[in-house]
Amino acid sequence: MLRTISLSKSLTSTLTKMGPRAMSTTSILPQVQDVPCSKLGGRYTVTLIPGDGIGQETSSAVKTIFKAANVPVDWEQFDVSGYTSADDLTFKQSVESLRRNKVGLKGILYTPVSSLGHSSFNVTIRKDLDMYASLVLCKNIPGYPTRHEGVDFAIIRENTEGEYSGLEHQSYPGVVESLKVITRTKSERIARFAFDFALRNNRKKVTCIHKANIMKLADGLFLNTCREVSKEYASSGIKFDDMIVDNASMQLVSRPQQFDVMVMPNLYGNIVSNVGAGLVGGPGIVPGCNIGREYAMFEPGCRHVGKDIQGRNTANPSAMILSSVMMLRHLGLDDHANKIANAVSKTIMGGAVKTPDMGGSSTTTDFTFAVISNL
């Protein structure tokens, strides 16, 4: 059985509902509701792509916790790897599974740096299914002290164009041209997503990140479109400002508390998400999701494969677990989401079980069973 929504609701229904701004065990993560999903007999079928590096370990943690918490989710797992070719059958099957189920949980797929013609599977999935909005939440977690306190901002990134358009060619030996594509339609779509997110989640300000001082046409179009959209939300009290991306990078590491909702083109969003993750503790704890009109895919917000610690049982599974909590809210399984979110929060606040990235020596397995004991 599919839950469907009208076209007029399709944009607003993708937006998340954070609840109280203060960090609590039940409002750590956003909620996505009223979107299509695959449900049969009271159970949901979700596509699972563990990914490369530590993906198998962190995905295993999620599956173990879901089983212990009796979550009504059945997995269609596809062990896709970024090392395979673009015509790989398993990759094609995973995309078809996502089309069928509408919802997916995914680790990070490796993208070869030197392989000419090898497109990123991460980008391909998001573009093919038009999951145009990337949402990453950067927020301090109680029990995990970092350099900065009071960090709480959302990064909203346009997922389908910009520098990731994949349009490159060598016009002459030793001369490469790479096209950056920015359109008014997609700029307006992501801007409205950002302002609607701010409005629904009691956020006070939206900041457009750009490089319009140099890329006057491309980034200028993105900035001007955001400015035009902001006028429609002025009566709601949401403030709007903009910041050049290099200055934003410095401001993030010096005074991150000034940011609330940040909206930006593709490449800047990738970079800023990594900076944001570093501010609140690293890639192991930052959840994220990709949202479109029809599909939603949840994955760690800081897209690191973790190849260097693969197979060591030392990875922090929090980012994958919390991304799965976002997925549960998306499915309307709030009780299960709250139970697991509470357990993760208690485990971190307790301080007895810490993976190496958190300053401890506990294993991925230790952390997983600690979460289960706190359910």
From TrEMBL:
It comes from the Eukaryota. GO terms for molecular function: isocitrate dehydrogenase (NAD+) activity; magnesium ion binding; NAD binding. Belongs to the isocitrate and isopropylmalate dehydrogenases family. One of its GO terms (cellular component) is mitochondrion. Residues 45-371 form the Isopropylmalate dehydrogenase-like domain. It catalyses: D-threo-isocitrate + NAD(+) = 2-oxoglutarate + CO2 + NADH. Keywords: Mitochondrion, Transit peptide, Tricarboxylic acid cycle. It comes from Linnemannia hyalina. It is found in: Mitochondrion. The keyword Mitochondrion applies. One of its GO terms (biological process) is isocitrate metabolic process. InterPro entries: IsoCit/isopropylmalate_DH_CS (IPR019818), Isocitrate_DH_NAD (IPR004434), IsoPropMal-DH-like_dom (IPR024084). The gene is IDH1_2. This is Isocitrate dehydrogenase [NAD] subunit 1, mitochondrial.
